[in-house]
Write a structure and sequence with these properties.
Length: about 170
């Protein structure tokens, strides 16, 4: 199974989750930042995984990414994120899973970049949604809460199983 994992990350937490999911999906997974991702999903891709940090209850925008940079974030690209990448993506029938990172202490609040991304996938027929998941950080800059990378690995295995591939233990 060939997977493309497209992510954005301001402090590196979402990148860590993206890399862990890709590892769990096995050798056929490519991880790329949204700002450098292809303009359309290559034809040989069986599963697209899209993830980003939750900003202001949704996917980030240029303004929230600038806010993050003003608060000391360094690893993101203020010019582009998954919102912009999805907005420019043509319709397709690829299988899609979305994830986000969010602050654990406010996990009962409804806003989620993963759910917002899933909504865009449905609205613009960007693919068939397989699953949506959130992973939790301790604070704005992280770190990921204990056990979250393990959960990301498990989710990667579940996605592989759902999409009919052998998992990579
Ligand atoms: C401008 C801004 C808005 C945010 N809004 C939310 C929010 O609505 N809900 C939430 O749980 N976390 C919120 N956060 C925290 C981010 O989700 C957190 O910074 C992110 O998960 C860290 O991931 P990263 O290291 O990949 O950037 C916000 C962070 C920033 C910078």
């Amino acid at each position: 199974m060939r997977t493309l994992v497209v992510y954005e990350s301001m402090w590196g937490n979402t990148r860590e989750v993206a890399e862990t999911i890709a590892e769990a999906l096995g050798g056929g997974a490519t991880v790329v930042e949204a700002a450098r991702a292809p303009e359309s999903v290559p034809e040989d891709i069986d599963l697209l995984v899209v993830g980003g940090p939750t900003h202001a209850f949704s996917m980030s925008r240029a303004s929230t990414r600038r806010d993050a940079e003003a608060k000391g974030a360094r690893s993101g690209d203020a010019g582009s994120g998954i919102r912009e990448w999805l907005a420019a993506l043509p319709s397709s029938d690829v299988r899609v899973a979305t994830f986000d990172t969010r602050v654990g202490s406010v996990r009962r609040l409804p806003g989620s970049a993963a759910k917002a991304a899933a909504k865009e996938v449905r609205r613009h027929a960007l693919g068939h949604l397989v699953d949506t998941e959130s992973f939790y950080v301790a604070d704005m800059s992280g770190p990921l809460l204990d056990g979250e990378l393990e959960r990301a690995r498990t989710w990667g295995h579940e996605l592989a199983a759902k999409c009919g591939a052998r998992t990579h233990e």
